[in-house]
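Subject: mismatched residue count in predicted assembly?

I count 849 residues in my input, but I want to confirm that the predicted structure covers every chain. Input:
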Amino acid sequence: MKILSVTGLRASGVAIAIAMLLVAPALCFGGAKPGGTLRIAMYADATSLDPGGANDIPSQKAYNLVFDSVLAFDKNLQVIGHVATAWKPSADSKVWTFTIRPGIKFHDGSPLTAEDVAFSFQRILDAPEAASQKKSSIAMIDSIEAKGNEVSFKLKYPFAPFPGTTAQIHIVPKQLAKEVGNKGFASRPVGSGPFKFVDWVKDDHLTLDRNDQYWLKRPNLDRVILRPIPEGTVRAMSLMAGEVDVVDQVSSETIAKLQGVKGVELLSTTGLNYYWLGFRQYGPPYNNLKFRRMVYHAIDMDGAIKTIFPQGNAVRAYGAVPPLVWPHDDKFLREQAPQPDKAKAKSLLGELIAEGVMKPDTKVLVSMPNDPERIKLGEILVTNLKEIGVNGELKVSETGSYIETAVKGTEPFIYSLFAVPRYLDPDAVFSWLFLTGPSGSTHGAKILGLAGVDPKINDPIEKARVISDQGERAKLYVPLQRYIMLDRLYHIPAYYRTIVLGKRSAVQDLLPAPNDLFWLVTPFSNVWLDR
Amino acid sequence: MLRYLGNRLLYAIPTVTCVVFAVFLLLHLIPGDPAQVMLGVGASEQDLAALREKLGLDRPLVVQFARYARGVLSGDLGDSFAYRKEVLPVILERLPATLELTFAAMLLACGIGIPLGVEAAIRRRSSFDLLCRVIALTGVSFPVFWLAIQLMYLFAVTLPLLPLSGRGGPVYTWSGVRHLLLPAVALSTIMLPSTMRLTRSSMLEVLGQEYVRVARSKGLRELVVIYKHAFRNAILPVITNIGLQFGMLLGGAFLTEHVFAWPGIGQLTVNAIFRRDFPLVQGVILVTALAFFLVNLGVDVSYAYLDPRVRREMAERA
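Triage response: the counts match. Full output below for your records.
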């Protein structure tokens, strides 16, 4: 995490002085002050507060404050115990057993039991209206059994990253959820998290009050109000005017406006979103390795990122695995990736024409969704292609139709998508993007257009799923990523967008979450207001 | 009058049917699979197929339309894909906010536009008239979006007099009024210029009529001539315009709601379109079309009351 508004702190003396100034209020007032209402402006309202159904980010942000998950993440997104105190796999990684923490109570006073945990997973697997990405991410579960304070998950196939998937599933009270039904539960959710549901006026505000009995720690804030403000400029103005205390999704344009505003600070951290340029393998020249190398040499990705994100709110990507997910191989990938080299690109173009893969007037289609930043990326790519004598054409489509064309169509072109791992494990990245065949679900490989099974891709992904040791799994993923990104050049990795939060200076102990949720009460933070 | 109302209500049936059919067809023709949008690109084929089946999207288009039309006739607009609940309550939750904003903007536009138009006509070619015309032209030229941001910056950030966004409560509360003011002013600029210009031109036309000259020659006070004899006749086209402009206001409300985070059906519709939430978009358009129809019906009825010729014609027909 870094505070964008504080720059140039090179002299250690200055740093120490500022650190003391920061610590001083806490010393004077005896640390965190309980009380107060935190007003948060979100870019969109939740669609539902039922964690079994809604899977969109605004809904996750909201219900994550009301519900607990079986496991959670630390600030480096490593899986830690939460509702479950311990978890262990069977020897073949096909049965996972979780021990549930005793003494946790739901907001209605009923105890949280292993039965509730089993039910919370089962209702996602069973309910058709819960058909969501959550369902896909736990689709490997064959059966669930609750016994005493333990829950056992029997999987259809060995799956080492299973603990990470459980951190996405929130626990609901079985009895109440059954009594009131899914719709009733969504309108008045009861969880065991740090805040209790009070009221929700759709598209206006959601009010949550402190759960005094929260088992992890007593939340400092009395109340949290989440307000959807869809327009980025208006969110920024709301922060400037002091109408809200925290705003999410601070855009590139508003970063500059908020920097230097008295009483406003910006917090940022690298996100989990991986953006890339991909070559659909459905036809020439896109399925030709030399063509992909030519495009790679033609584009100046570093320059493009500086142009698109002048405030520095994106980090160059060299591989598909986000910085907070292991294995970390960026140094090697950066050194070995094709560098911007117009002469080399022109020479490769000459070879492609000589080999008959391209004609001098072959049109190269660059298709982008209706996202301003990726449209700019497309424009830069087309310009770079023209500079080497390639006739590039940019096509922009509305996001819904873009995805449909990419998933259902078989037209070859250069495309751009982004992916956020559904669970924080390299398996989520590689299986989603590149795994083909019956065990690979996925549209990622379909969009890319990989024809048939490539054992060099499938084998390491499937082998790593049954190995528990992270080091051993990393030995499979590192060469896999190098093969995809350097040998096959299926992707030109573009960037990871930075998560930027704006806050009033009075808001203390707020950390920006790389998974784009709000970390208000966690093992490592408890937000308070210094008013 | 009742027969007239009955006839007008009957006219609504083909109009609303056409709207329902056109919207249904358009929504299903544009690319974008709702199941895909809901589940994301990572969803498996099985999950997508299951969801399409659940939503009825696997049926032929004709069957889907027949189901939808049957539902509409029985008052069931279907379930929202995104909100996973019935469409009508989702819309009705937000409709009061949109109507409140639209009527407030309409009141402002008429309350300011009509007196200014009358005054500009009376003081024709004066500097006041010129100023009114400049205001009208400016109002038409500035996009609501831009104007809204400027108003917010001035009145909520620089001079923190009014709240920036959101709805502070029902309109009869002080907080509700304060929150309503900026969006209503921004939205009223859609209607204000045309109301002002139409009032001015209509008044100018009437002021040149013989009966106005006669009224003046009878020695009536100017105020009586203007407001009793001229204004009552000049207002008729303005009232017709109000009905037509209501549709423009509703359209403008969609954008205004987005900027001001106003919890009405505008925001709901924009999100529903992006999510390919067909039943919700269809429901909103159906409700909006009905609202537009009812307002125009109200305008026609008031027209009948204000214009004796229309009253007489209706009486003769009856």
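Chain A is about 35% helix and 25% strand. Marking this ticket as 'not a bug'.
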